[in-house]
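User: I want to check something. If I give you two sequences, will you return the structure for each one separately, not as a complex?

Assistant: Yes, each is folded on its own. Here is the first sequence with its structure:
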Amino acid sequence: MKIYYISFFLGLLLLIRCQGSYKELNQEELEGAWLIAGVEMDIDFYKPSALILRFKKDSVYYESMKGDILKKSRLLFQKDAVVIDSFKYDKRKVKLNENQLDFIQFKAHRIVETKPLDTIKLREVLLNNDWKDNEGVFQFTTDNKFKLYNEVNESYKQYCYEFKSYHQAYFLIKKGNQLACNRDYQFAEQILSFTGDTLKVFRFENGKFTTHSYTAKPKERHIAKRETFQLCNKYINKNNRYDRYYYKGTRFKGGLYHIRKIVKEHYIAPEQSTATGIFQVRFVVNCEGKAGMFETQAFDYDYNLIDFDAEISKQLLTIVKGLQDWIPGKNQQTQLPIDTYIYINFRIKDGKIIRISP
């Protein structure tokens, strides 16, 4: 993760909920290395990280898993505040619960001590089996990619993986998507142990750290197709303004003019309808330019939520689902295509569409 991300996260003054089991701590209790697993962007919404926090005396170091120092900051504990370089935070934003640390927006855990792992044997075991958990069935391949199979609908999603180590700690890093590998990292998983039957890891999920197990099953040739719509970034969030289409360049080929033309060709206003209000369709355009994850809601003209005419709602949702010719938005810094949330609003009076807007 780049240094500007570190500065950005430190600059955010997000509210972190107080939990009774946490305690305030002093500088000495922080000594040592911690894995930053996630960054709290909103209540119960986290972005993955795989940085190391290392505290030493009056300094905090941000390191890669290779041990490279990406940033060093001065750390000072005052009576009611924690000072990191020139940023001053309420002291309650640094809290410890056993080996779990809330450090401003970071969710970190002291790195778990394990016995040395035979990484060659680990890779062999991983490749020779399928691995099942509550998400589905994982099948790892020699080119550092894996498929996550959904056995119910016989489809799969495609990702990448790699192993990383920090001193004697080993991590399984899932990342990438259907387009590329070196992007869109998932939460790091520290490998605790493995046998021919079980892979046990320690990871951050659902806002807390937990031990998680994968169960081996005989490797098989799956008859499945790639999902027609796959998020490129698993951690997109509709309440996070950075995941919305504004200034990202997401647009329909032919623009709003073409959307209006398609709607005009397919929408049939119900006769003698009195349905009036704003019908909104919200969805994600992924990095491939495909649309999915559709949601709808409706308002009156004063933006109070209302139930809308079922026939009109069904028509408009069907039309919007058919709009699949999108140009994906781009990350403004990397210029890589990304997933973005987008909205289409239909202003309706007596069943007739009088305006279509983003």
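And separately, the second sequence with its own structure:
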Amino acid sequence: MISRVRSLAVRYAVGGAVMAMTSALLVAPAASAAVKSCHSANGYKVTGANAALTCKGLDYYKGKTITFVAPDNVGGGYDTQARLYAPYIAKYLGATVNVLNIPAGNTIAGMNYVAGTNSNPNGLTTGWMNLGPIVLGKVLNQPSVQFNVQGEAMLGSTGNGLSALFALKSSACAPWDTSFAALLANQSATNVISEPVQLTGATTATLLNLNGTFGLHFRIIPGYTSSSVLIAGWLRGDGCVLYSSLSNAAKYVVSGQAVPLLTNFAIPSGNGFAQYFQNVPTFAQAEKSFFTKKHPGTKLQKAGIAALYGSSLANRIGFVPPKTPQAYQAALRAAFDFAGRNPNLTLQELAAGNQGGFLSAKQAKSLYLTWLKSASRVKQFYTALG
């Protein structure tokens, strides 16, 4: 694991042995007539249709220093992923990568910082893009995001963040600790809890959407200043149901302290936690079983579904501003691809409690556009909630 340090900027220098990895993950897709080939700084061959651009970019990055912006505090999800990716990107490019934390504004300040380097697009500043506040800002006409997402150059994305709704197993929580169906049948204003620190975050957004879609009421209790404090309160019995990361949920499911009720996405069979969430419905499955001829649902509930899926896309998308030269973009995409598909990094992600996986730049942009297609329904939902 990469050691976490307290400073806001951490330097990862090039070095170390070349990691064993299948060439299929590292070589660009074959083209009928490769223009050029070269090798990355750590020895992997680059071929294919974009080889000429990528090779030119690799020449540029050797010996350079890159700033990787994590738009949250040290120890947060974006920070952790930046520190995991940084050494792999550094090795591939032959560069030094510094992680810089800019945590203000629910990740928006950090994203604006990266986008703002478009006035001097030297390819030496990249960072994570957070889809949630971007899309919400767009559909609700909130001007805090100061760039056009579709115009930014996306480099690749981490896999969907996996989360779960789970109930404390206790006599006090018996009405809710058997299944999602039991939770729906025994609703109260106190069964699902959250904390103020996440009022503008993805967790509270998801709970709002669950409330709007299924009527799952939740309360925010003052005094919870972090997820760990929230979990301590949940274990005390402050509330029966909690929505948190899959790794947090699995910890208590495995120990017998909790029962899983719902997951935001299907758990891949290769995920180490999959065995503990068998037959647990996903958002999509819950929607299908919830809205029936006998219970067709209101317009607000159906509008909430689109928002629910969107708030669950906790992907961290690497990006640079659009004026960044094409060769630099190509080299950075290759570096992100090398990092994201590296089995060693996947193991580190799982050990850190994150879901392993990687999406290409094209796939990441598709996710954004898919959510935007539901913009009118998302806007209707949040406007109704006030």
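Because they were folded independently, the notes below concern the second chain alone. Residues 10 and 123 are 19 Å apart (CA to CA). Residues 9-130+144-159+316-373 form a domain with the D-Maltodextrin-Binding Protein; domain 2 fold (CATH 3.40.190.150).
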